[in-house]
Amino acid sequence: MPRITPDQAGSKNRCAFLDMIAASEIGAKLLAASDDGYNVLVGSTPARPLLFKDYRDHPNIYSAPCNSTAAGRYQLLYRWWKPYRDLLHLSDFSPVAQDRVALQQIRECRALADIDAGRFGAAVAKVAHIWASLPGSCWQQHENKLAQLQVAYVQAGGQVAV
């Protein structure tokens, strides 16, 4: 579960959407083997979790095999951390800070109204360029199926429009 509350996030659907992104990016086994994904470094696997311990700042650990500095529940790149930290006046890379950054990214993609209205597929399509594991991503990495992600979203308490 995200550490941000539904009231802080703006809706229960938004929290469920954050859970869906984490399930897609991190995977259920790695979420369970970590601090719910908040301390996961890029390149982690359930058999070999790569975790950081200090939430004072983005760890900025470069993974050569992945050519990435992605870290945390939403696999935020270090180059994006500083602008979001400053924009949102964040003091650390804590779980709530990571949730707030992810929500800001979703806001910038103009997907919040779709999430709130239960237009799950439309919301995923709008944010797919941010998260490599989402269907329609431009990152040429493994993409999860929309139907599987919708199951994760609903299991997290998200409502889908009929």
Query: What does the overall shape look like?
Result: globular
- Number of helices, counting only DSSP H or I runs of 4 residues or more: 8
Oligomeric state:
single chain
Largest sheet: none
Order of helical and strand elements: HHHHHHHH
Radius of gyration: 15 Å
User: What is the mean predicted local confidence, pLDDT?
Assistant: 95
- Percent helix, as a range, is 40-55%
Number of strands: 0
The overall number of domains is: 1
Low-confidence stretches: none
Structural class: mainly alpha
What's the CATH class, please? Mainly Alpha
Name the CATH architecture. Orthogonal Bundle
In terms of DSSP E residues, the strand content is under 5%
CATH fold call: Lysozyme
**Straight-line N-to-C gap:** 25 Å
Layout of SSEs?
Elements (H helix, E strand, L loop, with lengths): L5 H4 L2 H14 L2 H5 L45 H10 L7 H14 L3 H6 L2 H8 L18 H10 L7
Helix pairs in contact: 2-8
How would you describe what is shown here?
With about 160 residues, the chain is mainly alpha-helical. It has a single domain, classed as Lysozyme, CATH 1.10.530. It is about 45% helix and about 0% strand. The protein is built from eight helices and no strands. Helix 2 packs across helix 8. The longest helix has 14 residues. The radius of gyration is 15 Å and the shape is globular. The two termini are about 25 Å apart.
Primary descriptors:
single chain, 162 residues, mainly alpha, Lysozyme, 8 helices, globular
